[in-house]
Write a structure and sequence with these properties.
transmembrane; 17 helices; MetI-like fold; 2 domains; about 0% strand; about 350 residues
Length: about 350
């Protein structure tokens, strides 16, 4: 197993390079790059503001255009100002030079500075990641703690009244859009029309540092209650039905009939034999489920509840064409996904020792 893990870890490097490379060249040819973004902001500003932004003392005239800029919307700006913007953003170098420099920096985990926020990318990520970790961790934990026991019970009581009404509730919850349910929670419990039980903004309160240890823990979960509930409401369906169907498939197999004929108790059969086999499919879905909740699934929740997390940061970076921030978040998301995939394979062998990836490799 150790040699298999080493091979998988070695594959992480070329996989990361391939993903970053494809996205780098796609984004380079897409219109509306960071230079265009800054040019659009500079349009209509006075010369003092432009000199402050570009660091250039060039006279900004509307008529003395020495050469035509390749950027749309650059008409009316002095060519030297455009050249200074390109230099500051690194676009004065050929594309292959920028590409290899980015790869070298990423290998050393040097993500540089944000183009528009005036701070290093690492600082921005470290500042935002607690929000995304909180949302992803608690949402995934709650979903698995609820769905796995519920799916097992539904399998044992297949076609009963319990199975029918729980399926109805789960399907209705899955049909409600996350953002709509979040707004409903705000209206009901966060100072909307009815109750004012939960805060609406932030991960912690303003006076968080002044609270005791118990007070800090309670304050943290007080702020996390509504965002987490909004995230999990639509996540029960897939895992619950996956668990149920996996157990139904295993219960009908011959080895279960044999175990019952030998006089084993239902609990021994269920948790000693069926559980390991049925949980393989559930474990397989964990990495994608966690990544989905950790990043993409939490973006709307972060916006609605005013939480500055990684999902919102990546979305804003894409809109602004903040290339260092875009590629850094992509790099980190991909790296975490690959590591979680390896952890998932290790968990396979823990749940079912018969699985040996090393022999298959």
């Amino acid at each position: 197993m150790i040699s298999y893990i080493i091979r998988r870890l070695l594959l992480v490097v070329p996989t990361l390079i391939a993903i970053v490379t494809i996205n780098f060249f796609i984004i380079q040819v897409a219109p509306g790059g960071p230079v265009d973004q800054l040019i659009a902001k500079l349009q209509g500003m006075d010369s003092g503001v432009m000199e402050q932004v570009t660091g250039s003392k060039t006279e900004l005239t509307q008529t003395n255009m020495k050469e035509k800029s390749t950027y749309r919307g650059a008409q009316g700006l002095d060519p030297e100002v455009i050249a200074e913007i390109e230099r500051r953003f690194g676009f004065d170098k050929p594309i292959h030079v920028r590409y290899f420099k980015m790869l070298k920096d990423f290998i050393c985990f040097d993500f540089g500075d944000s183009l528009f926020r005036g701070r290093s990318v690492i600082e921005l990520i470290v500042e935002r990641i607690p929000v995304s970790v909180s949302l992803g961790l608690w949402s995934t934990l709650i979903i698995h703690l609820v769905c796995i026991p519920l799916g097992i019970k539904k399998a044992l009581k297949h076609s009963s009244r319990f199975d029918v009404w729980t399926s109805t509730v789960i399907i209705i919850g899955n049909a409600i859009p996350v953002f709509l349910f979040a707004i409903l929670l705000i209206i009901l419990f966060a100072g909307g029309t009815y109750f004012n039980w939960f805060p609406l903004r932030g991960l912690v309160s303003v006076n968080f540092d002044q609270l005791s240890l118990v007070g800090k823990i309670l304050d943290y979960f007080w702020h996390m209650a509504l965002p987490t509930l909004a995230l999990v409401i639509g996540g029960f369906a897939t895992l619950t039905f996956l668990t149920k169907n996996s157990f139904l498939d295993e219960i009908s197999k011959q080895y279960v009939v044999t175990a019952r004929a030998k006089g084993l108790t239902e609990n021994r059969i269920l948790y000693g034999h069926v559980f390991r086999n049925a949980m393989i499919l559930v474990i397989a879905s964990f990495p994608s489920a966690f990544i989905g909740l950790f990043f993409t699934g939490s973006m709307l929740i972060e916006v609605i509840f005013s939480l500055d997390g990684m999902g919102l940061l990546g979305f804003q970076a894409t809109l602004q064409r903040d290339f260092p921030l875009m590629f850094s978040t992509l790099y980190i998301f991909t790296l975490m996904g690959l590591i979680l995939s390896i952890i998932s394979d290790i968990t396979y062998t823990i749940v079912d020792p018969r699985i040996d990836f090393e022999k298959r490799g």
